[in-house]
Every structure is written in C-alpha cells, then in structure tokens.
Amino acid sequence: MKQEKKITIAIDGYSSTGKSTMAKALARAIGYAYIDTGAMYRAVTLYCLDNGLFDGDRVDEAELERRLNDIHITFKPNDEGRSETWLNGTNVESEIRSMRVSDKVSIIAAIGSVRRDMVRQQQAMGRDKGIVMDGRDIGTVVFPDAELKVFVTADPMVRAQRRYDELRAKGDTTTTLDEVLHNVTERDRIDTTRAESPLRQADDAVVLDNSNMTIPEQNAFLRGAFLATLAH
Ligand code: DC
Description:
By secondary structure, the protein is α/β, with parallel strands linked by helices. Helices cover 47% and strands 18% of the residues.
C-alpha cells in the first residue's frame, strides 16, 4: 500500500485478548515494525527466575535494578520472518510464554525501575514512527501522542479458553482451564491496580471488545481504524 506518512499505533488492553495477533497482522499488512512489549517484561522475568532473584513471589528489587544493564533484550526475525525475542544472546521466544513466567510477570511489570528502563527502550524503538506496539501503557505512557490508540478487551472466560488452547497446542498437557482463568483474572487485577502505570484506557483510544469476533473480523476492524486515522 502506498503511504505518504508514517504514524505510531499503540495497542493496549487486557492479557490474552489477542492484541499481539492483530497487531502483528496489521504491521505485516502495512509494512510497519511490530514490537511486543509484554515479551520484554516476560524476558526480564525469565532472567530473574534463572538467576535466583526470586524468593517465592518476592524479587530482590535492589539487585534487579543493579543488573538492568546486563539484561539485553532484542527482537530478531526467524526463518519465516516472524519476530522472536532474544535475551542475552539466547532465543527465549517459547520459554517466555510458559506458565512459570506468566505466573510471575505481573510482579516484575509492577517495579518502577524496570518500567522506566523498558519505556526508555520502547521510545527509542519507535522514534521514527511506522511502528505498531502492543502492551498496557503504550497509549498512556510510552507514546501518549500516538496517532492511533486501540484499547482491546474481551470476556475473561473467553480469554482463558484462548490461552488454554494455545498452551495445549504447544504441548502443555497439565495446566487446567481453571488455572489459566485464575492467572488471567489475577493478572487483570495486578495490571489495573498497580501504582506504576496501571492499565487504563487512554481518553482518545478506540475500544475493541473482541469476545465475539473472529480473527479476520478484528483484523478488518483494526485495518479500518488505521485507514480512518491516515485519512484524517
Ligand atoms: O501482554 P503480555 O501478557 O505478554 O504481558 C505480560 C505482562 O507484562 C502482563 O502482566 C502485563 C505486563 N505488561 C506491562 O505491564 N506493560 C506493557 N507495556 C506490556 C506488558
């Protein structure tokens, strides 16, 4: 598609709403870069788990802050051109989606020093616009001036079922639907009530509730919102 100007697209919303699926599809269709900011918080969480910074649900925040400069997160395309997350030279794309990481990531995402470091990196990645970024605080904190902001929501049970199907497809045969539902609602609670950049809808965001939408339908919605923004 011929485009005269590049914009910034911020996609925020609850966990497991399929934000990243639609953000990726839009980025591919319009030739923009795609950044999954949840993957960055997940990679920091994996680092903490693998380096003994967790004691149960408590994390050694002072030690983590000291080590932030040693945590290098990058995105590289795989053989099929899909972006994957790397942590200090290791491909962690699959590992960061495990329940082990999902269970602890909200704790890491609530830490101010971690958020400041991630936001700084995200702002640098989007400096030249032409980017689709998904997360929780993209339209409110990272790019408050984004030309298009979408806030995605869906019924918690629908989200849990989607996440459960994904885990099964990846070979996880032990996690139950109940456990996934608990993880989804617990993450909603922590994400919306934390002191540092809680998840909230930006005043100028377009709301998308995709509980009863198919993937092609939500892709079409997003594409329409993008074209409408460009025409503005
Ligand atoms: O989108 P996700 O489920 O992969 O996000 C993982 C966690 O990181 C989730 O608990 C919310 C948090 N997160 C955040 O606080 N800010 C972001 N910009 C992205 C994710």
